[in-house]
C-alpha cells in the first residue's frame, strides 16, 4: 500500500479505499498485492521507468481512464511530459497510430487539468 500511495497519491488511494464494496474488495486486494506489492515494489526498475512502461502498455490496450490516472501519477514518479511523449511515439510504432492518437489526447487533457489545478494551488 505504501508503494501505491507513493505513486498514485494519498487522495486517490483514500478514494479507492472509501469506495470499496463487498463486490470489489477481492479485486482491490489483488491490485494492492499483485500490482503494487509485487511488481511496482521490485528493485529492478525505477518508478519513472515503471511509470513509462505502464503508460505505454495502457495506451496500447486502449485503457484511457487508466492512462489518465498514470499521467497524473507522473508528478510522483518523475516521468516528464517529454518522457511520456517519447513512450507514446513507441506506442504508435508498435501498437498502432490510433492507440497512440487516443492516448495523446488523454495525456493532453490530463496535463491540462494538472496545470489548471496547480495554477489554483491544488492537485487534481
From TrEMBL:
Pfam families: CMD. Gene3D superfamilies: AhpD-like. The keyword Translocase does not apply. Its EC number is 4.1.1.44. Residues 26-109 form the Carboxymuconolactone decarboxylase-like domain. Keywords: Lyase. GO terms for molecular function: 4-carboxymuconolactone decarboxylase activity. SUPFAM superfamilies: AhpD-like (SSF69118). NCBIfam families: decarb_PcaC. This is 4-carboxymuconolactone decarboxylase. The lineage of its organism: Bacteria, Pseudomonadati, Pseudomonadota, Alphaproteobacteria, Rhodospirillales.
Amino acid at each position: 500500500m505504501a508503494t501505491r500511495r507513493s505513486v498514485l497519491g494519498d487522495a486517490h488511494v483514500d478514494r479507492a479505499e472509501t469506495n470499496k464494496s463487498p463486490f470489489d474488495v477481492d479485486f482491490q486486494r489483488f491490485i494492492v498485492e499483485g500490482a503494487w506489492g509485487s511488481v511496482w515494489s521490485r528493485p529492478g526498475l525505477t518508478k519513472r521507468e515503471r511509470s513509462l512502461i505502464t503508460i505505454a502498455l495502457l495506451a496500447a490496450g486502449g485503457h484511457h481512464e487508466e492512462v489518465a490516472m498514470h499521467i497524473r501519477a507522473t508528478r510522483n514518479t518523475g516521468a516528464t511530459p517529454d518522457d511520456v511523449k517519447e513512450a507514446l511515439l513507441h506506442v504508435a510504432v508498435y501498437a498502432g497510430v490510433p492507440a497512440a492518437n487516443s492516448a495523446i489526447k488523454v495525456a493532453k487533457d490530463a496535463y491540462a487539468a494538472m496545470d489548471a489545478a496547480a495554477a489554483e494551488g491544488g492537485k487534481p
